[in-house]
From TrEMBL:
Residues 1-267 form the Pterin-binding domain. It holds the Pfam family Pterin_bind. InterPro entries: Dihydropteroate_synth-like_sf (IPR011005), Met_Synthase/Corrinoid (IPR050554), Pterin-binding_dom (IPR000489). Keywords: Methyltransferase, Transferase. GO terms for biological process: methylation; pteridine-containing compound metabolic process. GO terms for cellular component: cytosol. This is 5-methyltetrahydrofolate--homocysteine methyltransferase. PANTHER family: METHIONINE SYNTHASE. Gene3D superfamilies: Dihydropteroate synthase-like. GO terms for molecular function: methionine synthase activity. Belongs to the vitamin-B12 dependent methionine synthase family.
Length: 267
C-alpha cells in the first residue's frame, strides 16, 4: 500500500500558523512523525496562501526534506507553484504531483511538466463538466487522463488514478460508485495505481473516523493501492495492513506478521 501523509496542509490551523511563522521545528516534527508511521510520501500544501503559495511551497519541500528520506507529494492547484517546488526537490526518488485533472486549464498546464519525466502523478477524475457521479463517468475521465499521460511518456506505473470520493450523506450511491470505479479502472488499465483521499466519504456524519476506516477496507478489497491519509491514525494503518493481507496482496502475510511483531495491532 502506498501511503501519502496528508498532515502538512496549510488549511489545518496549526500548520498554517507554522508556515506563517516559518517554524521549521514544527513542520519537521509532523514530517518525521508521518514517515515513522509508514508514509511513503509527505504531502505538502500551502494553498490557502494564494499570493505567497509558491514561496511557501518551496520552503515546505526544503524543510521537510532536511529530516525525511521519503519524497514529497507536491499538492497545489497552481502549476507555477508546482514548477518552483520541483526545482528544489532533491533525492533519487521522484516526487509525486497532486494532482492533474481533465479540467482544460489545469491539464494543459501540467501535461508539459510531466512529459518525459519519471514523476509520479495523481490523476484526479474531474473535468470541466464537474464531478463524476457514476462509475462510467469516472472510467471515461480516467481513460482520457491515462491516454494523455502515457501519450507524453508517463509510465503507467507512475499514474495514480483518483476516482474522486464524494459524501455518502448526500447520495447513498456515492460509496459504491467509487468502489466499483476502483475495480473497473484496475481491470481496464492494467499497471496503473488507484489512490484517493477518502475523508470526504463521511462528510456531515458523526463517527467519521470509523466510516473512513471501514471505507478504506472496502476499497482495498477492490484493488485500491494508494491512500492519502493521516498515517498517525493507528487503527487506519492497522486495518490497511490487514485488508491487504486478506485481499491477497501480502505474500505469506509477511507485512502482516512484521506489523504484528512491531505491535501495530496493539490498539
Amino acid at each position: 500500500m502506498i501511503v501519502v501523509g496528508e498532515l502538512i496542509n496549510a488549511s489545518r490551523k496549526a500548520i498554517g500558523e507554522a508556515i506563517l511563522n516559518q517554524d521549521v521545528a514544527a513542520i519537521q516534527k509532523v514530517a518525521k512523525d508521518q514517515e515513522e508511521a509508514g508514509a511513503n510520501y509527505i504531502d505538502v500544501n500551502a494553498g490557502i496562501f494564494v499570493e505567497e503559495e509558491g514561496d511557501y511551497l518551496k520552503w515546505l519541500v526544503e524543510t521537510v526534506q532536511e529530516v525525511v528520506d521519503v519524497p514529497c507529494a507536491i499538492d497545489s492547484p497552481s502549476y507555477q507553484a508546482i514548477e518552483g517546488a520541483l526545482k528544489v526537490h532533491k533525492g533519487d526518488a521522484p516526487p509525486m504531483i497532486n494532482s492533474i485533472s481533465l479540467e482544460k486549464e489545469r491539464y494543459e498546464a501540467l501535461l508539459p511538466i510531466l512529459a518525459g519525466t519519471d514523476l509520479k502523478v495523481v490523476a484526479l477524475c474531474m473535468s470541466d463538466e464537474g464531478m463524476p457521479e457514476t462509475t462510467k463517468e469516472r472510467l471515461d475521465i480516467a481513460e482520457k487522463l491515462i491516454n494523455g499521460l502515457t501519450g507524453v511518456g508517463v509510465k503507467l506505473d507512475n499514474i495514480f488514478v483518483d476516482p474522486l470520493v464524494q459524501p455518502v450523506s448526500t447520495n447513498a450511491e456515492f460509496g459504491m460508485e467509487f468502489i466499483n470505479a476502483v475495480e473497473a479502472i484496475n481491470k481496464e488499465f492494467k499497471g496503473v495505481h488507484t489512490m484517493c483521499g477518502l475523508s470526504n466519504i463521511s462528510f456531515g456524519l458523526p463517527n467519521r473516523k470509523f466510516l473512513n476506516q471501514t471505507f478504506a477496507v472496502m476499497a482495498i478489497a477492490k484493488g485500491l493501492d494508494g491512500l492519502i491519509i493521516n498515517p498517525l491514525d493507528k487503527k487506519m494503518m492497522a486495518n490497511m495492513i490487514a485488508a491487504e493481507s486478506l485481499a491477497g496482496r501480502d505474500n505469506y502475510c509477511g507485512n502482516y506478521l512484521k506489523a504484528h511483531r512491531a505491535g501495530k495491532f496493539d490498539l
